[in-house]
From TrEMBL:
Coiled coil: none annotated. The keyword Cytoplasm applies. It comes from the Eukaryota. This is ADP-dependent glucokinase. One of its GO terms (biological process) is glucose metabolic process. One of its GO terms (molecular function) is metal ion binding. The keyword Cytoplasm applies. One of its GO terms (cellular component) is endoplasmic reticulum. It holds the Pfam family ADP_PFK_GK. It comes from Papilio xuthus (Asian swallowtail butterfly). PROSITE patterns: ADPK (PS51255).
Amino acid sequence: MAGAPVKLGSILSFFILFYAMYFRRYDIGDERLSPVKNHLLFLESENKVGVGNSQPKVALGYGACHDLFVNATSLLDYTDLKGNPEHFNEITNKEEFVKSFTYFFKHGAAAERFMSNSKLYDELVEQALKLPDTRWAIGGNAPLMARRFFLEGWKVLFGAKMSKKLKKYIPEEILIVGDNENEEVKDDIHMILEYKADEKFGKYKAPRANRYIMHNDENNPLLSSLEKLGEHLTSFKPNLLVISGLQMMDNFPFKQDGRDLRAERLDLVKEQILSQPLNTLAHFEMASYVDLELLQHLTTKVLPFVDSVGMNEQELSNLNSVLEHGRVVVVADSNPRVATALDQMRNTYKLIREKNNAFGSKRKLTRMHVHTLAYQAILTVQNSEWKRTAAAAAKASLTAHRYVCNSQNINLEKTKLLLDDSFSTTTNNDNNSRVFFEPNKPVACWEETIVGDKVEICVAPVLICTEAQLTAGAGDNISAAGLVLQVEI
């Protein structure tokens, strides 16, 4: 199989590899770009979404919002930073806001936080609207993933309470359920503080382009569209159910009069998943969580009952730590080695499969997708319902570039590769297995056995957009793109 791991058996191989990497790194341009692009496009063109009776259907929950995009360093004043950057689970004042933003900015790490101070939040929105480059767009995991599925040829149903104004962002062919007829809906607003690679904020410099999201939601934490979505699932008969947007519950004040409303709502999410026939695959989209109690709820009420999980490198590190140690990882390496991510994927897979068994779930985790700046990694269990893993990894890679560059055309002058000429498949020193990167066959796939399960792992390089136009929503589009080819009916 292309790109399968091999053993480095000679010193000569090492020096050939070293010199190839050295001269490429110090040469002008990267001759790998063109063949990588051509082969990724070939895989995409050879693998199509079904049409007619073979058109797949997806249902997505929960929620939507109005995203207000603003340049982070234009909105914030570095002189407001008092002391060192610091992480806060919940933002209550301006000082915490600036410290929290700077903490993630210096790591180039994505973050999403709840601001409990509504007055301050409204003031920040007003300030952002006065800046010249501020813009509005639809936001939320479900609508962004829904739009991607639709653009790729799927039939789509999604649940969200939305105003008529916000619904105009959604293609008419997508069925939206969530609010009552003639109900006046006030949309939640998310502030998307964007920054580019190497951008400076005082003495700090961002190692990569990313975003910091702030919200003060009222509708989304309650999953207010859950029941309406459930009413339509029976007649819609989706091939795939996507659970997303649960991070809006993070640090939201749910407990009142001894009642844990959040746990109750998550029990309903679990019931909604269980209500679907086993041939309707269930996917959970991870996000930025810091509330340990919520994460522990997810490990008992959601993760044991889904077939697939999607996440970025930060979310993978966090989920792996919560499952194994019961601890939250607030920030992780924003560009991890392939070997590190694969080891975390294997361990997370093993721990979730243990949850499958502990909770007697009829569904078993059979798919994981991790997207990073440099590569896409997809793990699928052999002979499961998931198909075309190599093509899915290629599709996700192309979507990452197109979305961030905000262009369907892949311009190699605005492109770079971070993946080296070879990579280890594990950090285990007893296993020196490596995959050699082949530009003419850039998607490397191989077989392994994890806790007795035969799996296929595919890793695709990302043609990184060097002139980022969009960052927020990239993960939703990439995850959806990774799914669109893997469900066949």
